[in-house]
Design a protein that fits this description.
Jelly Rolls; 115 residues; mainly beta; 8-stranded antiparallel sheet
């Protein structure tokens, strides 16, 4: 059976999960090949360095973040984005409280199992 979100979602009706360390996650639209996730960070929250087999693009909706991809770190703020290739170490430190929009290909099935 194919796992997918409804065609239309209202953010007010989508659960926001506390994933710990001052980070909350809201899983928005997804199907087998694509997923959009809203990540809400408190100031000084750390998205610890990790890697996964998914391609990822992250858009900074609000706040300021120090992003590290591989061995390079850059400060990103509203309107900036980062592309993270599969299997590359990456992480972020939230300098000013904010929200990231993460797009993954394929879907992060591990996120769905936790929700």
């Amino acid at each position: 059976m194919k796992q997918q979100s409804d065609l239309f979602l209202h953010a007010d009706n989508v659960e926001i999960e506390d994933v710990g360390g001052g980070i909350h996650r809201q899983i928005l639209g997804y199907d087998d090949s694509l997923m959009l996730v809203r990540a809400i960070f408190d100031q000084n929250a750390i998205g610890y360095t990790h890697a996964h087999p998914h391609s990822q693009v992250t858009f900074v909706e609000s706040g300021v973040f120090d992003f590290t991809i591989g061995s390079e770190t850059r400060r990103l703020s509203v309107g900036d984005c980062a592309r993270i290739p599969p299997d590359v170490d990456h992480g972020a430190v939230c300098v000013e409280a904010g929200v990231l929009l993460d797009v993954f290909n394929p879907v992060r099935k591990d996120f769905l199992q936790e929700s």
